[in-house]
Amino acid sequence: MDTKNFAEKLSESRQNGMMTQEELAACIGVTPQAVSKWERGVSLPDTGLLSDLCQILDVSADELLETGCCRRDKNNSIVQQAEVLRNLEVSEPLKVLLGVHIVEEFQKSFNPGKYHELRLSLARKGILMPTIRVKDESWVQPDSFVIQAYQKILYGEQIVGQEDMASYIGKKLEEVVSDPHNYAYILNRELVKLIVERARQFYPTLLEAVPECITYKYLQQIFKGLLLRGKGILNVNKIVEVIEENMEQDLSVDQMIEKVMRVEL
After folding, report:
1. Does residue 160 sit in the same domain as residue 218?
2. Which of 139, 167, 182 is at the close of a domain?
3. Around Cβ 203, how many Cβ atoms within 10 Å?
4. Who's near 46: CB < 8 A, 6+ residues apart?
5. What ranges in 40-161 are assigned the alpha helix state H?
6. Please, which residues bridge with residue 133 across strands?
7. Distance between CA atoms of 163 and 223, rounded to whole angstroms?
8. What is the total count of domains within the chain?
9. SS3 of 188, please?
10. Is the pLDDT of residue 90 over 50?
11. What is the DSSP string of 200-245?
12. Residue 69 has what pLDDT?
């Protein structure tokens, strides 16, 4: 494996998927520092991680490794299996689906920097937006776009005459994700883990309880409950503190949420 070529291709594929190194690391269960070393050509991932990397980044092993060839057995089963997996539809946390008539205009006006600014704007509100998949979809009306989380449509609109279509869709995306009810639906365990890891940089001792005593699953339930009640989750350290203080009371999730809500978040 050519370390330099692999590093460049990995970095390019990650950025094309609009993922941060932290997000990619969380998806495959390694540290952000490990991903950074791979992209700088300092080290290479274990071969057992290549399949996960290819699936997450939506690239083939040949593209990622730049081998220029395909591994085949006598019946081409490996190649056929890879093709099937690449076409397997899996529900994703957040997708923007474009009608065929607006795809070209979206591509012309798309600016990765603006979408990065969108993610930063949401992050300042305590909202970590998942990686967005943008694709054309045949069932979407030709002049429309749809914002979908997993299999649920959160927003849809017919769009005509917008000069900067990508920016317009980006603004709608921010509005949709900012809605607490929508974000409660989008929020998954991996996002919860990333939020906690960020907070841990400031409150390492307090957040030792996660996930040793407070699981990511349980914290996800608390976060969702707060969001559905119109409360933010920006103050992660205080939320965890209240949970830890009341863990021995054997409270239900709803009762714990009520405890947390009594504290100014």
Report:
1. no
2. 182
3. 15
4. none
5. 50-57, 61-65, 77-86, 103-109, 112-123
6. 95
7. 38
8. 3
9. coil
10. yes
11. HTT-TTGGGHHHHTS-HHHHHHHHHHHHHTT-----HHHHHHHHHH
12. 46
pLDDT band at residue 251 using 50, 70 and 90 as cut-offs:
very high
User: pLDDT tens, 19-45?
Assistant: 788 878 877 777 888 888 888 888 888
Judge if the upstream peptide bond of residue 180 is cis by omega within 30 degrees of 0: no
Amino acid sitting at position 6: F
pLDDT digits (tens, 9 = 90+) for 41-86: 888 887 767 777 887 887 777 777 765 444 444 445 555 555 565 5
Asked which of 120, 149, 182 is the last residue of a domain, the reply is 182
Can you tell me the distance from the alpha carbon of 86 to that of 63, in angstroms, rounded to the nearest whole number? 13
The tokens for 168 are: 């317009």
In angstroms, the Cα distances linking 66 to 31, 87, 225 are 25, 21, 46
Residue 149: in which H helix or E strand, if any?
A: strand 144-149
Mean residue pLDDT across the chain: 85
pLDDT (mean) for 102-112: 89
Sheet containing strand 95-98, edge to edge, reads 133-136, 95-98, 144-149, 152-158
> 192: Cβ–Cβ under 8 A, 6 or more apart, which residues?
216, 219, 220, 223
